[in-house]
Amino acid sequence: MMQAYRTEGNYRCAARLTAAELRAAMANREILQATALAFDTQRQLRFELGGVKAMMPFAQCADGAESGTVRDIAVLTRVGRPTCFVIDALDTDENGQPVYRLSRAEAQRMCKADYLDTLQPGDILPCTVTHIEPFGAFCDVGCGISALLPIDCMSVSRISSPADRVSVGQQILCAIKNRDVQGRFVLTIRELLGTWEENAAGFTVGETVVGIVRSVEDYGTFIEIAPNLAGLAESCTGLTPGQAVSVYIKNILPEKMKIKLVIVNHALSQRHRFELKYFITEGHLDRWVYSTPESPKRIETDFAASACNPV
Fold this sequence. Notes:
The protein contains 5 helices and 19 strands. The radius of gyration is 24 Å and the shape is elongated. The strands form 4 sheets. Strands 1-2-6-7-5-4-3 form a 7-stranded mixed β-sheet. The chain is mostly beta strands. The two termini are 35 Å apart.
């Protein structure tokens, strides 16, 4: 049976398996998961599988740990969280008690060789957001292997923080933008969230909708009304980025890719974040064009060029 590679937290739970099922999983090199219970003074993660203790030495806690490229903090933060692994062996400890030897590093090497290394820029894959920084969100792309989703790849609309678009633990879809100099994936999501036309088709002149202030300029206020669509309203004092407002849609101009808005309610009582709406959910993209055919402004992504000229 071919291994299905997933993000950490989405494998079979080893703690619920019988001894026979665990032996079969060990023989088949199946990737399982369990909650790490401790990171002890011997620098190993401790687990319990079906009433039997299990150990993961530091060198097996992540691909790269043995060579020193993985820090302790990256391992000890696994405590209390689902952690994936393959079972390397069933041994006995110094007291003659059975103990499973686990390896997350081997699960990651399998995931890289059989799955991630086969992917190209433009391929779409499921990810899980693991933590957020001001410059972007780090995502698990399989077995805890990390990739960066930069803030400027989260939408065509400008946002001030990655938290405006995603949250830790959220499962999202991304496309591979390219690889960095270390060979790690750089991700993008904006190409999956629809073109200007696709987003604008969901709105009608004359309706009033919820918007989020994204930028306050001297000449007006940019207000997002969908994750990949923003319009411009007249300048208004007291508005700050991230603030939710209601806006009246005055005009929609495809030839200029502009939406004219009028702010109706300046201060909605609760914060708002748009749910991600995917217009593409699987497969591969060679090229994506956000702009309307009649607009002189071109916003596009050429994934094929990234595949031919990796970073």
